[in-house]
Each structure stands twice: as structure tokens, then as C-alpha cells.
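Please, structure for the following, as C-alpha cells.
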Amino acid sequence: QVQLVESGGGLVQPGGSLRLSCAASGRLFSVYVLGWYRQAPGKERELVALITRDDRTTYADSVKGRFTISRTIGMNTVSLQMDSLEPEDTAVYYCHADSPPLGTNPSWGRGTQVIVSS
């Protein structure tokens, strides 16, 4: 089992930047992918970005070119640099970790709120 704790959320004006971080602990040797999902009010949780142990990245089309995901070598921290934020980015952002076989028992953080508003 992997424990995840997010930090870095808050209120930012449109066009601004925020950096989210997630501290991971537990069975890190088994983790293959770390990432971020988000859930806006009244909407389903959606993928934002993923990064694998071999540094392959995946981004939602809506954040490509604006968000950058990174991780530490030991897979104990995953960060999300968010630039050019838009009101549509307002959501609760959840940290995610998964180990093979993928999708069978992922770990989730409790979430951190991001509000983009003037």
C-alpha cells in the first residue's frame, strides 16, 4: 500500500501559476506510475497527467503546454507545475499511484483544492 499526501493548492488569478506536490510513502519499490487527476463540481474525476518510472508522460489535451509533471528518482514525490491557469482548471486535484497489475488497486490522496478566479 502507498500513502499519498498532496500540498500546494490555493486560489490564483487566471493566467497565474501554482505548483502541486505529493509526498508518497510506503511500498514505493512497487510503484510504476504516479500522477494527478482532478474533479470539478458536478463532473467526473478526470486524468490530468501521469509519469512512469521510466519517465514516460501522459497529459490531458486540455493541459498540454501549460502543465508539467515531474517526479523524484525514488518515486517518493510527484509534482505538477501549472502555468497559464484558466477558470476551467478549478477542481480538487488528487494524487495517484499505481503498481502492476495496473488499475487493480491504485492509491489516492485526499485531494487539494485549486481555485482559479479573479
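The chain is about 0% helix and 50% strand. The longest strand covers residues 18-26.
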